[in-house]
Amino acid sequence: MFRRISWLIVLLPLSNGPMLPAQETNSPDIRVYFSPHGGCTDAVVRAVRESRSRILVEAYSFTSEPIAAALIDAGKRGVDVEVILDKSQEQARGTEADVISLAGIPTYTDPAYRIAHDKVMIIDGSRVITGSFNFTRSAEEYNAENLLVISNDPPLAAQYEASWKEHIARSRPFHPGRSHHRGGSHSRFYGPLETEEGTAG
Questions:
Q1: DSSP annotation of 46
Q2: Which structural domains are found in the chain, ordered by start?
Q3: 117 belongs to the catalytic site
Q4: Is 186 a catalytic residue?
Q5: Which residues pair with 31 in a beta bridge?
């Protein structure tokens, strides 16, 4: 009696690198951080330093010197940075709004709401930073907060950018009636800033 033995031969394409399923290479990368002292500020700074073309920011309170410095450095590298803050930052003590505005970053406040409470960064049209974490020293050192850094997700970034555009359309230049920026500030979404006389600054 002979036994029939079947062999299954699978031919795999040659590759110079590891083979990964297609869905893994295109999946969003999600990182979560917690405070106090959970690396939230470092995660934001790292993402800003990795930016290449554009950073859109919404913040309620903004007193973090490391994050402000990272945004300024990004602007010096040629990254398009624009920031919307809650109107409270016009009078807040210790705000970094003055610092980034004087450094040439277009900065606005959103007066359309009782509180503009978003804490969001949209980076290069594919990365979103969000969560309860304010861009402040207190949020890093004293508060119970969470931070999500979601990378490689253009559809999600597009939704946040659409919301950002709605907010910028209702916003006004930081320190109403004046611009800190040489030659006047200009937002691609907001348009030229206007002086008190109604002409472009």
A1: H
A2: 27-174 (3.30.870.10)
A3: yes
A4: no
A5: 149
